[in-house]
What we know:
alpha/beta; Rossmann fold; five-stranded parallel beta sheet; 9% strand
Amino acid sequence: MKKKIRALRYIPFYPLIILTAQLIFNKGCSFSKLPLIIIVYLRYLILEPFRLGEIITYERKIRKFPLDKIIFVIGHWRSGTTHLQHLLSLDENHTTSSVYQFLFADNFILTEKWLKPPLNFLCRIFKIPYSFQRMPLDLNLPGELESAMCGFCSLHSYAWGHIFPKNSMYWLNKYIFHPKKNDLEDWLDDYELLIKKFSYASGGKIMIVKSPGDTARILALSKRFPNSRFIHISRNKKEVITSTSYFWEVIQKEISFQKINQEEINQIIDSTYEDLIKKFNDQKHKVHNRLIEIEFEKLIKNPIEEISKIYSIYDLGTPDIQNIERLIEKNNQSKYQKK
Length: 339
């Protein structure tokens, strides 16, 4: 059955079929979001030859590509996961998903070299913001792997709950909090394919994977990826909740196809915070020898010391101190918010 479902991806314009099906299943869209939806449809329509070309040319090689070390950066949304991901990805021996790659997860091997430069140029000319991090948009910045699942048009991702927030709890429960065995396996299959794709594109570098939802799925990930390691970052609850509220404001403004009110947003935030932390605490003792726990406040105060500890424990060699210091100085001179 899985092979049959996988074969559907070879159908021309498969992403448009998936998007249309998702619009129907998730109760449509808000009228004000029609321009965004048109842009998304045009994106998949125009780039469809590259999606198919990439499947035909590379997918067999990608599926056979061996994965070595994977480091999963976990923690609640807005707890500092992106900042930690960025610091770790500065190492030339590491790779991670970029904003461009998650936006074009279905075709980036064939399109990144020629499409990313002009898009980045337009971002600078029109001063397009990267509102999630309160900084100018640069498509080279680190991006979240779970978001790439939607760009890839996988049906097995909680990130669909960001695009269709009216159905947010359905997607969160299905793939994070209360997944059925089959759903979890389907998600893992697509997740592994994407991780292999990013690793293959980098030439086999250590993959830094960041997705807050993984905080509740460490046991499943540890079984699927025996060589994986985890770094959990925590942050003051009040700051996390405040920042997550802002996170949802940006989701509503920039990427969702639906509008929900603040009360509904607050309900999502309140329920997911407690559930995510509980799921992590229930599982972490089973992977304790593959887990490092750090605090956001300590990382900000002593970044070199905290990163060096991670490198020492996981035998990663020597961190790129100069690049870390350069990034920290750049962030301190900007309005960047380390989320």
